[in-house]
Amino acid sequence: MMDRVLFTKGHGTGNDFVILPDPDGALELTPALVAALCDRHRGIGADGVLRVVRTAKHPDSAGYAAEAEWFMDYWNADGSIAEMCGNGVRVFTRYLLTHGLAEPAPAGLPVATRAGIVHAVISGDLISVHMRTPEVYAAGTATVGPLTVPGLAVDCGNPHLVAALHDGVRLESLDLHVPPGYDPALFTEGVNVEFTTPGAAVPGADLHVHMRVYERGSAETLSCGSGALAVGAVALRDAGLEQGTVAVDVPGGRLRVTADDQGRWWLAGPAVLVATGEIDLSTLLSGSSAAGEAVLSGSSAAGEAVLSGSSAAGEAVLSGSSAAGEAVLSGSSAAGDAVSSGFSVAGEAAMPPGLPAGAGSGALG
After folding, report:
1. Exposure of 357 by Cβ count < 10 A (0-12 exposed, 13-18 middle, 19+ buried)?
2. The pairing of beta strand 219-221 with beta strand 207-215
3. Which of 125, 144, 179, 226 yields a CA-CA distance of 20 to 30 A from 216?
4. SS3 (DSSP) at 247
């Protein structure tokens, strides 16, 4: 195993990832290593790991080599492998562009995932991803403590259960420190559970929904992109709409889900890279008190960490070892490789292709 590897830390609406460049698939990535990297006390800390590997170099993606150069090898924080991550695709795309590994394309940058090929369209600080069409296919229930909530199963390339709260139950009242209960016969591989409440009208969206999510393999997170897609699909279905835009507010910010007039489904939102460094794998895996210290390379391009988001979004920025302790505000010109983009406090929201002008405006409701 390699002794030291480079990493980048990034997030999309607070859903954060450790990004590992491994173009030729040389890194021996294991469940134990992924869990150690994602450990917020002894590792770097994240909701998951995105390995950047050439499609032809990974057995799970070799069949897509003619369609996409890069494969997003996504792992959950507990070391399990996942099929898809909507926020992860946008962060992965941002990494490719920032590091000169890909160029924007009018039809979208193709990215291979275990759920198939998706295409990312870049518009400044915002990224819209043409996602797999979500399929609402069954009814189920989610249980939190004494509360059982009816929901709908949605296939977004990975499994979701969307449960709308009723009878005045408040979203913030749910205790998601433990996994919600669900029907294991319906979700044999586990499920991501989204709880929702309706929101007030916002500019540029046909519907507005608030969401919290418990992610399979990662626990509650500040955001889940494929979960927002599932929630948007259910919201449009319940409203009797075949197309439209749903603003989905999560604890980490806002995402927009659009079903356009050509039958395509888009997930739009910010993607931010906040730090780059190097990690000692032997120390990380040893379990010592020093495990997981990130050692920055010292160059301004590699070692800058940017605070990009509100404190309400709960985003902690890794800026190297505790001795380094450096954080650079996103307004600084020196921090040009990591820009705050799309948090609700900045008043920015994404506008997927095909939406009318002004569709990307609006703050959190």
Report:
1. exposed
2. antiparallel
3. 125
4. strand
Token digits for 326? 């450096």
Residues 6+ apart with CB under 8 A from 341: 124, 125, 126, 270, 271, 272, 308, 348
- The answer to whether the beta carbons of residues 345 and 252 sit under 8 Å apart is no
Determine how β-strand 147-155 pairs with β-strand 219-221. unpaired
Q: Which amino acid is at 31?
A: P
d(Cα 57, Cα 130) in Å, to the nearest integer?
A: 24
Handedness of CA 74, 76, 79, 83 (dihedral sign): negative
Let me know the angle formed at the C-alpha of 342 by 336 and 346, rounded to the nearest 5 degrees: 90
Distant-in-sequence, close-in-space partners of 35: CB < 8 Å, separation ≥ 6: 77, 78, 79
Q: Give residue-wise pLDDT tens across range 78-90.
A: 999 999 999 999 9
Residue 363 amino acid letter: A
In degrees and rounded to multiples of 5, residue 245 shows phi and psi of -120, 135
Q: Are 132 and 265 in contact (CB under 8 A)?
A: yes
In the DSSP assignment, the letter for residue 286 is: H
Residue 225 · residue 85 · CB < 8 Å: yes
State the Cα–Cα distance between residues 197 and 168, nearest whole angstrom.
9
Q: What does the radius of gyration of the chain's CA atoms come to, in whole angstroms? A: 19
| Residue 70 structure tokens | 């890069």
Provide the annotated active-site residues: 85, 224
From first to last of the 365 residues of the chain, give the pLDDT tens digit.
Answer: 678 999 999 999 999 999 999 999 999 999 999 999 999 999 999 999 999 999 999 999 999 999 999 999 999 999 999 999 999 999 999 999 999 999 998 889 999 999 999 999 999 889 999 999 999 999 999 999 999 999 999 999 999 999 999 989 999 999 999 999 999 999 999 999 999 999 999 999 999 999 999 999 999 999 999 999 999 999 999 999 999 999 999 999 999 999 999 999 999 999 999 999 999 999 999 863 333 344 333 333 333 334 344 333 333 333 333 333 333 333 333 333 333 333 232 333 333 443 333 333 333 23
